[in-house]
Amino acid sequence: MVFEGLKVSSFSKRFGRFQALENVGFELRPGEVLGLIGPNGAGKTTLFECLAGVLPCDAGRIEMRGRQVQESERFSLLFYLPDGTAPWPSQSVQWALDFTIGFFSGRHEVREQAVAQLGLQPLLHQPLGTLSKGQRKRVLLAIGLMTPQPVLLADEPFDGLDLHQTREVASMLRAHAARGRTLFLSIHQISDAGRVCDRFVLLSCGRVCGEGTLEEVSALAAARTGAQSADLEEVFLALT
User: Fold this and answer.
1) In whole angstroms, what is the distance from residue 204 CA to residue 181 CA?
2) CB burial class (10 A; 0-12, 13-18, 19+) of residue 186?
3) Are 94 and 125 in contact (CB under 8 A)?
4) Average pLDDT score, the chain
5) pLDDT digits (tens, 9 = 90+) for 4-36
6) Is the dihedral of CA 94, 156, 23, 65 positive or negative?
7) Which of 59, 129, 163, 210 has the smallest CB count inside 10 Å?
8) Which long-range contacts (CB under 8 A, 24 or more apart) does 63-71 make?
9) Which of 56, 40, 237, 75 is nearest to 156 (CA)?
10) What residues pair up with 154 in beta bridges, in sequence order?
11) Integer Cα distance of 90 and 104 in angstroms
C-alpha cells in the first residue's frame, strides 16, 4: 500500500479534571519531517501515545484517503519511539539491531548506514543497560529508523545529544525523509526543530495554536498579533 498521508482530527484526552489534549488536529504528509513543538507539559507525549494506541483517547479520528484508520491498523502505519525508554538492558546493541530486523521486519538496508552515521560501531557488543543517555538515544534512533512503518513518531530525538551529534542526527533524519519516510518528531528545543523540520504543529496547553511551514506560521502570527518575524521562537511565543 502506498502511503498517502494521514489526517488527524479532534484528538482529546482528559486525566480527571485536567484536559491534556483538546480537539487536536493536523496532517501528516508523505516524506516530510513534521515537528511537534511545545514546552514540557504541552501534551506532546500524550498525543504521541494516543496516536500510537498506547493510551486510549477520549475522542479522535485518523483518516487515510478519506477512510477512518482503525486502531488495529495503526501498528502497520505508525511506529512510536518513546523518550527515556531503556529496553533489553542485559542485551547487546548488536542483539537489539538484529531483533529489530527479525521481529519488526526491519530494514536491512538502513542498518549499516545507521551504525556508521550514529557512531554505533564501538558500542555493538556493549549491553544496552551500560550505555549513557546519549548513547542509548542513538541506538534507539537506529532502531526507529530501521522499522518498516511509513510513519515514525520519535519523542525528543535530540535529548541527550551534544551539539555535534544533534547536527549529524538532524542531517540523517532529513536524508531518511528524503527517501520517502514520514517523520513526526516531538521537540521542545525550538532551535533543533527549525534545523530539521519541513512543517510544524505548535502545541500549547493541549491545543494546536498553529500548523504549517515557517512561512505559514509566521504569517499566522502576523495576522493575529501584527508582529512580523521569521524566527520560529518568536512565532511560537506570538501564537501562544
Assistant:
1) 27
2) buried
3) yes
4) 92
5) 899 999 999 999 999 999 999 999 999 999 999
6) negative
7) 163
8) 63/6, 63/7, 63/9, 64/3, 64/4, 64/5, 64/6, 64/7, 65/4, 69/6
9) 40
10) 81, 185
11) 20
Q: What is the percent of the chain where pLDDT is above 70?
A: 99
Q: Is the pTM of this model over 0.85?
A: yes
144-167 residue pLDDT tens? 999 999 999 999 999 888 888 888
Q: State which amino acid sits at residue 115.
A: V
- Amino acid (one-letter) located at 24: V
Whether the pLDDT of residue 97 is over 80: the answer is yes
Cα–Cα dist 219/162, whole Å: 32
Which pLDDT score, from 0 to 100, does residue 231 have? 84
236 to 71, 143, 173, 214: CA distances (angstroms) = 32, 31, 23, 10
Residue 181 contacts residue 31 (beta carbons within 8 Å): yes
Whether residue 202 contacts residue 209, with contact meaning beta carbons closer than 8 Å, is answered with yes
